[in-house]
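Weekly structure sync, notes
Attendees: PL (lead), two postdocs, one rotation student
Agenda item 3: pending single-chain targets
PL asked that the sequence for the first pending target be pasted directly into the notes so everyone works from the same version. It is reproduced below exactly as submitted, 420 residues in total.
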Amino acid sequence: MHDFVYREGELYCEQVPVSRIVKEVGTPCYVYSYSTLVRHFRAYDSAFKNIPHIIAFAMKSNSNLAILSLMAKEGSGVDIVSGGELYRALKAGVSPSKIVFAGVGKNPDEIRDALKADILMFNVESSAELRAINDVAASVGCRARVALRINPDIDPKTHPYISTGLKKSKFGIAADRALEEFKLASSLKHIEVVGVHKHIGSQLTEVTPFVEALKKVLKLVELLKQDGINIQYINIGGGLGITYSDETPPLPQELADAISPLIRDLKVTLIMEPGRVIVGNAGILVTKALYLKEGEAKSFVIVDAAMNDLIRPSLYGAYHEIRPVLEAAGHRPKHQVDVVGPVCESGDFLAKDRSLAEVKPGEALAVMSAGAYGFVMSSNYNSRPRVPEVLVKDGEIHVIRARETFDDLVKGETIPGFLK
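Predicted structure, written out during the meeting:
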């Protein structure tokens, strides 16, 4: 569920007409619903209320400081994958005791900063990384809490670019090498083994892969216990999908009902890393039609948002529903069009071969389900300033990121003297 609904033919975000946001902020812009974000987080949190758990919001899905602050106030931690994300999380008031650090390429400076912040744990992806963390922890004079990320070789049945749990993936440690790696971790002086981690992919629309992967992890936990390695945390990652078009992903309660019985009696804390399922349908990208173009083989709606603003359609062939902000009275004929942006790339599109009600130049359009992997993946390609982000709460519009200026585009750049 989300709070983007039509009232008398006009799209609203909560109690605010999107057309009002367009007038005040301009296009393109990202718009988020506070009430949707809170409701989605609480649905996930309450689903697991009967077992000890930590929700570590996957901030790679949306790292705006206001969004992170909202999550922290709701009791969430975060799943980070870089030093920059650690900085953002701490700046937003996230408790270090609820921060987990994932990713295959942590560098020594990032590791050191995370140790000094006293985060909950690192999700370790390789024996090389394990030794690197041990060395940095020795230099800092502490022990680093770690969970080893196990690759369970489970097919998540999702897009190959966001599938992370198969043998060919760069992520995790192969299940058949897990015992050996855990023994290595336990032998290192500045490592404290506290958990097992797995994450098999994103935008999952079935519970079964979660259950199969967890069962493999639980077999490993039992073997570790026999070797005297007691696990305190089991991290099942994230990946629960959302509805972009006609998907019917399970609700958080369905996931909880499937996996809670498996760990209820283990005396461990469950860690989860949801991202898209919380923010995906809590945000939209608002754009404006600039021109209509009739090509030889296709018709185009040219809008002011582009692949640099929302790259998912270009990168993954991802589907985002596109709706008019103002529904015209009466019947609007439908046309098959490509919705494209101003960037000079053939891959610059928001929709291809889409049946849309007739669009008029100057009309505002809403690209739905854009709260996750939207702004965070944006760029300045073609020297386009990045767009603003807006949070709507209780009928008020809050600009939580200002639109970049041309001056912002050249900030930090210098022309050396020999070129002047």
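Discussion points:
- Residues 388 and 403 are 4 Å apart (CA to CA).
- The first strand starts at residue 4 and ends at 7.
Action: rotation student to compare against the earlier draft before next sync.
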